[in-house]
Amino acid sequence: MAAAVELLDAHGVDGLTMRRLADGLGSGVMSLYWHVDNKENVFDLALDSVLEYRGPQTAQQAQDWRAEAVHMLEDWRASMLRHPWSASLLPRRALGPNILSRLEVLSKTLSRAGVADADLNVAIWSLWNYVMGATVTRASFDLSDEDRAAAQQRLTSLSERYPTIERSRLLLDNDWDGAFRQGLGFLLDGLSPR
Amino acid sequence: MAAAVELLDAHGVDGLTMRRLADGLGSGVMSLYWHVDNKENVFDLALDSVLEYRGPQTAQQAQDWRAEAVHMLEDWRASMLRHPWSASLLPRRALGPNILSRLEVLSKTLSRAGVADADLNVAIWSLWNYVMGATVTRASFDLSDEDRAAAQQRLTSLSERYPTIERSRLLLDNDWDGAFRQGLGFLLDGLSPR
DNA sequence: ACCTGAACACCGTTCAAGT
DNA sequence: ACCTGAACACCGTTCAAGT
């Protein structure tokens, strides 16, 4: 599936064509259908291959649950941003083994941190929502590179009608990494036991 | 654009075809291109029409910032879930006037609540991320109705390998509305001033 | 067991032309 | 100003057939 990932990285979701993929593999188009049921299947395999998690490099686990959670979540986001087509695909497909492993890790970490069993699922889904929302949004800015200039100009002309977000420069702020980390901190504050 | 929204509701993003849209309008396909630049333009118009916000019905504003924020955000989510194709489209397109209005409202509310100017953008994007992640995920479950049975079975067979999320029944819990509200509460806790 | 070409039923959009 | 049909360059996938 490395060939599919390469194609997706280069041309985006719409650029992955069964014909183009076959070309990259040096085979006929219909050969693909021996190995794969249909095009969606290709997406599923490519998506899962991108979501593997190896865990923190140092054996710092068990001592700082918060650092551990942040590490997994930031690595998850980074993995998806390395392949900007992946984020918008993930919530639309069945969950593969690699993303389930990440959720398992997260669940263990939060449990160990003292999050009540009754709050555990809500906590996990909240973090899922935060990461997915942030990454889907960020990734789409990567994809529409050429439109940026036009969008920028459209915004400043429109923003007279939206004085508050204009004043805080909401749409011009592009410290995405910092905003992600800081907002994640706020969310973990809210989720922390006691 | 009501015709486009209807088609999208009925057949999803892939079901909206220029040919089908023209049929619904009782015109030739190419007539559409007089009113619209291309297909993406149709999506933009349909998307914005779905995101209008009328504000809270009672004049309870200014007294309870938290209720006001929750009202807008839950209404935003509900509007997108009424049109399940809309959520995954929103982060991929340029921001239209209606969603900008919602962000303006949110910004005013949080500002009035005492959120520091330095934290304002992070707070808004955090809420954006949470709502978008939750809704994109939830909406896709609506779309893949038929696959549910198969997915369910696949999950229980797989879940032996993921004991923690199996034990909390993470993937079987389907109180989506409750989880959204509760998680939003946690996030607002974390974002609250002081 | 694995690969293939031809064919089918579609797409979005250009273009030249109509009223 | 608005609408149209024909044509172009694509799609994913079925099927019957090859090795």
Automatic annotation (TrEMBL), chains A, B:
It holds the Pfam family TetR_N. Keywords: DNA-binding, Repressor, Transcription, Transcription regulation. Residues 1-54 form the HTH tetR-type domain. Gene3D superfamilies: Homeodomain-like (1.10.10.60), Tetracycline Repressor, domain 2 (1.10.357.10). Residues 17-36 bind DNA. The keyword Transcription applies. The keyword ATP-binding does not apply. It comes from the Bacteria. InterPro entries: Homeodomain-like_sf, HTH-type_TetR-like_transc_reg, HTH_TetR, Repressor_TetR_C, Tet_transcr_reg_TetR, Tet_transcr_reg_TetR-rel_C_sf. Signal peptide: none annotated. TetR is the repressor of the tetracycline resistance element; its N-terminal region forms a helix-turn-helix structure and binds DNA. Binding of tetracycline to TetR reduces the repressor affinity for the tetracycline resistance gene (tetA) promoter operator sites. This is AcrR family transcriptional regulator. It comes from Mesorhizobium robiniae.
